[in-house]
Amino acid sequence: MIHPTAIIHPSAQIDPTVEIGPYVIIDGPVQIAAGCRIESHAQIVGRVVIGEQCVIGRAAMIGTDPQDLGFKPSTESSVIMGPRNVIREHVTIHRGSAVGSATRLGEGNFLMVGVHLAHDVQMGDKNILANCCMLAGHIHLGSNTFIGGGAVFHQFIRIGDSCVIQGNGSFGKDIPHFSSAMRTNRITGLNIVGLRRQGFTAEQRASIKDLFHLLFCSGKNHTQALAAARERDWPEPASRLLAFASVPSKRGICPWRGEVDTE
Q1: CA dihedral 250, 253, 257, 260 (to 10 degrees)
Q2: 199: annotated active-site residue
Q3: Which one, 10, 27, 55, 262, has the greatest CB density within 10 A?
Q4: Which candidate, 80, 114, 115, places its Cα nearest to that of 95?
């Protein structure tokens, strides 16, 4: 199961069922769980934990140092990856930037060719990132979100659950749950098709639509919109959208671009 050209550090802990291809380098106290496949020329270095049934594609680089001029290579940090993630060719995932920190992936994510996750990214479950997406440091990405190829994201922002984001977009502000986003920091509406495919009921979609309209399309400023929204009781998952909007990052939330309802 291990190609003779692979180089594996003696401190690595690798389940006997793991397949390791030609010229793979596993350097340091790496932990790889059962059923994983590490394809040729991949490098996994340092304190990396990989869950069951993951695929690490050709020439992927997992656990390398952050691209931070102030980073000290002696810092003990890690990459922690849940089960059933697919990491395709030439993906780079950097380790955390502070002592004890980690870049984390949940389960069932699909990172296509050339995706980059910088240090301290926190990712949920079942996201799809198309080719050459780039997430800068400390970004929080929820679950069930699709990101088109070549989209780029500024450090410290948040990307919500069940979003759809246009390829080649550029984002430096938060993207709320359930949103459709495009171009530069632009929300264009709700990810209605995605919500249907993910099993949201008609009642759930209606409450999300009402809250989204109130928060982003009513012509109120952010404080006014939040105050108006808090006057009502919102069912889950709309309440999750309200919670997201209530604690924006320092960079703020992407605005909705369209006609404002002044009624």
Answers
A1: -100
A2: no
A3: 55
A4: 80
Catalytic residue among 108, 137, 142, 189: 137
Q: Determine the Cα–Cα distance for residues 255 and 181; give it in Å rounded to an integer.
A: 10
- Determine the Cα–Cα distance for residues 193 and 130; give it in Å rounded to an integer: 18
Copy the structure tokens of residue 28.
């340091």
Distances 221 to 126, 207, 228, 249, 263 between C-alpha atoms, Å: 33, 21, 11, 16, 15
Cα 33–Cα 37–Cα 40 angle in degrees, nearest 5: 135
3-state helix, strand, coil in the chain (%, to 5): 15, 30, 55
First to last CA, the chain: 67
120 belongs to the catalytic site = yes
Catalytic-labelled residue, pool 116, 119, 138, 177: 119
Pick the catalytic residue from 82, 108, 116, 120: 120
Please, what are the averages of pLDDT over each run of 10 residues along the chain (263 residues)?
Answer: 97 98 98 98 98 98 96 98 98 98 98 98 98 98 98 98 98 98 96 96 97 95 96 97 96 82 42
- Domains in the chain, start-ordered, CATH in brackets? 7-138 (2.160.10.10), 196-246 (no CATH)
- Predicted confidence at residue 97, as pLDDT, reads 98
Residue entry with tokens 């050709």 = 58
